[in-house]
Each structure stands twice: as C-alpha cells, then as structure tokens.
C-alpha cells in the first residue's frame, strides 16, 4: 500500500509531500518527505502518528455515565468503586468481549491504535477459576483482534484487601490471584497469541494495598515486558500507606522495587517534591488519565515540577467514561492552567512553542514505552499505524504544522479523525469503523442484559 501525505508529523518534525509505503507484514517500509506523488498512491492532507491509551479497564465502559448522581451525602471515589464492583460481579466472558470490542472500536475511531489493558477481572463469580484460567484475558484479546487494535494485556496481580494484609472482600473475589496464577495467565495468553502480531503481554500489579511487593519479586524477575501499577491515586490511600508502612506510596515503591524504564506508575496523583524527583529520575512513565481523574475527583498530578525534573508521561482512558486522546490532553492542560493560573502550563520552564504539539509528542513517547513497543510513529520499521485528520472537523482551515495539533486538542468539537490505519490495514474510514454495525449491535444487546434494561 502506498500513501501520499501533503503534510505529516515525522520524528524530526512536520514535513511536506511525504511518500509512505506499507509492507505486506503491516510495517512501514519507507517514509520519504519531499517526494513526488507516486501513481496509484492514496492522497491524504494531514497525517499524524496515532495515540496509545496506556491504561484501560475495558469492562468499566459498561457503566459510563451511570455513576454521576449522589447516592449519599458523602459520595466519594469509594462509592463509585462499589458500583463498579457490582458491574464486575455480573459480567460474563462473552459480555466482556462485546464491551471490549465496542470500546476498542471507539478508541480506534477517536485516534488510538494501541491500548494497555490493566486486567484484573480473571475469575467467574464467587472467585472460581474458569476451566481455562486465562479465559477472560483471551476474550479481551479476541475483542482487540476483531476490531484491529494493538493490545498490551497486563494480567494483574490482586492478592489482598488492604495494606494490613486483610483478605479480599466478597466483591473482590473475581480478582483474586497469586503470583503463580498470574504467571500461568501470562504464559497461556502468550502462547495463544503467538501468531497475532497486534497482541502482546506485560504485567500489572494492582496497587500497593493489593500486592505484597516482596511476594511479587520472583514474578517481576521472571516476566519480560512492561510493568504497571496504580499508585497514590487517592489521598486516603496515601494516608493508609503511611500508617501501615511508614512511607508514602511512591516513596515506598521507589525504595522497595527496581523501578526503571520498564515501569508505568498509573495516576501518581499525590506526590511530595522528593517523590516527583525520584519518579522522574527512575525513567518510569507516569500514566496520567486526566478525564477519569477529574471524573473521580482524584486531584491534580504535579505536572509542572515533574516535567521540569525531566519526567515522562503518557495518557490513559482508564474508566473509559469518555474516549478521546484529544480530550485527555485538553483536560490535562486545562487542569494545570486552572491550578497554576498560567497558560501553556504543561510546557517545561524556558520551553517555547506549541502546547498541543508538545503534549501530543510526549504522550506518543510515554505511551510507546508503557506499552512495551520498540518503535512508534511515522518511521521505517515501525508498525504501520497512523491517523488521517479530518480538516472539516478542525476549527479553522489551512492550518499547518503544530497549529494543527493545537487546534485539534483545544478547538475540535469531536475527535478530528477521518481514517485510521493499524497494522497496515484501514480500520476506520470516513470516521466510521469498518465493523461498526455488528460491533454496536452486540454491545447494545449485552448492555441491555447486563444492566437489566
Ligand atoms: Zn485504573
């Protein structure tokens, strides 16, 4: 396949008249700027690398918008979590697959072509293992395969109900795993997906309250690929951690695990200045989920000091209450502007230039690392993933270079995405996924049954 982009965002910046050749194995063969248009090539106006959602809980898409009314005078994150547990309690493997397929189709349509699925819903109701222990993981893989999105599955260890080692509550039984069991799920999924280049496997540790780091140390050594952990999302979690181990969560994690570039610290909302510096120094990626963090009232990540310390970050759609990389980046920047009473707040001090351009590139780099991918973007050898933007959905015509990304993030009424290529195949054309109707019908049926509507 051959494409010709009038302007395209390459690793060294925006270039004109770019010839893009895709090989039959779904990778970019050549990316050549300042070219003539080859005969038979598809001409596109604006081409950018697609984004990566580095943190998702697919099943939570089944409750989007249902937790927005106050149920008691002290409604908090923890009341939201009760509703989420009720959904997790009911969902079957087939329903999981239908919801994940719909969600991943939405992701592709919005401009994501890779998702890291932080997956802890492993067992049947009552905590009974399925005949094939990786059943739920394999269903997530089927969903990604069917709609054609890249997946980094993170089978997630969830051992206990709190820092003090208390057992899991009944509502958490479906999550119960040991390091040995997670090792089995990892190897079962890896062997099942051997011939599927879009699907890969890393490792998740649910949180410091749910995992004993010492017990997980052999698992961390044995497994390759990225390691993700929820950390310091809520103030209450920080207080419990200090009370039980005498250290703040990120402080504890940095001193009790070999946190390096392989790690993604999801949320890390509540940090002291020494934790900010330590996390930036470690090379780990901060997995920021601005829409969900705003929705749940988590707090604001200290982005200004973190980027000034050289920290890396990417974005995740997390609860999937709304799926759009453009809106994630907008929410991230606006939270910082409101907090600091400045503009262009995400840019490091002394850095001049486009906020949107900088945010977009940072999210690409952080997302690539967190998903465990070697290469990403419009570069020869990388998987052939890209977005063709829809000029009609940008707020102004004739935009060029980073002004395109500023306009797309801050001024678009909806994701300004027209066509999406993943693994060398078109998955979205004219803003619509190729399997839109069948995937939507299955999702509607499942939601109706699951929510008893
Ligand atoms: Zn999460």
Any overview of this molecule?
The chain is of the alpha/beta class. The chain has two domains: 2-48 and 380-438, Roll (Urease, subunit C, domain 1); 49-371, Alpha-Beta Barrel (TIM Barrel). It is 36% helix and 21% strand. It has 14 helices and 17 strands. The protein has helices at 77-90, 93-110, 135-147, 179-192, 217-222, 235-245, 249-256, 273-282, 290-295, 303-308, 325-340, 355-370, 402-411, 436-450, and strands spanning 2-10, 13-22, 28-32, 42-48, 51-56, 112-119, 150-157, 199-201, 203-207, 227-231, 263-267, 285-288, 312-315, 386-389, 417-422, 425-429, 432-433. The strands form two sheets. Strands 5, 6, 7, 8, 9, 10, 11, 12 and 13 form a nine-stranded parallel β-sheet that branches. The chain has an eight-stranded mixed β-sheet with strand order 3-2-1-4-14-15-16-17, covered by helices on one side. Strand 16 (425-429) and strand 17 (432-433) form a beta hairpin. Helix 2 runs parallel beside helix 3 (135-147), helix 2 (93-110) crosses helix 14 and helix 12 (355-370) packs across helix 13. The longest helix is centred in the first third of the chain and has 18 residues, at 93-110. The mean pLDDT is 96. Zinc ion binds at residues 55, 57, 118, 230, 266, 318. One of its GO terms (cellular component) is cytosol. This is N-formimino-L-glutamate deiminase.
């Amino acid at each position: 396949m051959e494409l010709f982009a009038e302007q395209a965002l390459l690793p060294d910046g925006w270039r004109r008249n770019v010839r893009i050749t895709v090989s039959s194995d779904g990778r970019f063969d050549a990316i050549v700027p300042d070219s003539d248009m080859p005969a038979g090539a598809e001409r596109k106006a604006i081409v950018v690398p697609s984004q990566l959602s580095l943190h998702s809980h697919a099943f939570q898409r089944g409750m989007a918008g249902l937790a927005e009314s106050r149920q008691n005078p002290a409604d908090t994150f923890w009341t939201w979590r009760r509703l989420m547990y009720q959904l997790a309690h009911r969902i079957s493997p087939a329903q999981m697959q239908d919801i994940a397929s719909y969600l991943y189709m939405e992701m592709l349509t919005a401009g994501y072509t890779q998702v890291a699925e932080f997956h802890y819903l492993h067992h049947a109701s009552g905590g009974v293992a399925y005949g094939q222990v990786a059943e739920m993981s394999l269903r997530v893989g089927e969903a990604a395969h069917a709609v054609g999105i890249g997946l980094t599955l993170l089978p997630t260890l969830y051992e206990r109900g709190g820092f003090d080692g208390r057992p899991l509550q009944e509502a958490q039984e479906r999550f119960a795993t040991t390091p040995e069991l997670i090792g089995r799920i990892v190897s079962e999924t890896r062997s099942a997906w051997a011939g599927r280049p879009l699907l890969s496997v890393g490792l998740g540790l649910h949180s410091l309250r749910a995992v004993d780091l010492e017990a997980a140390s052999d698992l961390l050594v044995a497994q390759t690929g990225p390691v993700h952990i929820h950390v310091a999302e809520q103030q209450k979690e920080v207080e419990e951690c200090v009370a039980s181990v005498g250290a703040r969560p990120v402080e504890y994690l940095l001193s009790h695990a070999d946190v390096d570039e392989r790690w993604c610290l999801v949320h890390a909302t509540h940090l002291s200045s020494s934790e900010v510096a330590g996390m930036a120094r470690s090379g780990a990626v901060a997995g920021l989920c601005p829409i969900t963090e705003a929705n749940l009232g988590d707090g604001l990540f200290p982005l200004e000091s973190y980027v000034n310390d050289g920290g890396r970050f990417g974005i995740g759609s997390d609860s999937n209450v709304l799926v759009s990389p453009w809106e994630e980046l907008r929410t991230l920047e606006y939270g910082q502007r409101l907090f600091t009473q400045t503009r262009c707040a995400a840019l490091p001090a002394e850095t001049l230039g486009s906020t949107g351009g900088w945010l977009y590139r940072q999210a690409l780099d952080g997302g690539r690392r967190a998903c465990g991918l070697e290469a990403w973007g419009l570069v020869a050898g990388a998987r052939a993933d890209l977005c063709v933007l829809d000029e009609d959905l940008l707020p102004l015509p004739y935009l060029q270079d980073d002004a395109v990304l500023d306009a797309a993030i801050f001024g678009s009424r909806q994701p300004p995405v027209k066509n999406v290529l993943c693994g060398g195949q078109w998955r979205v054309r004219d803003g619509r996924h190729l399997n839109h109707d069948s995937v939507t019908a299955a999702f509607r049926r499942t939601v109706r049954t699951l929510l008893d509507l």
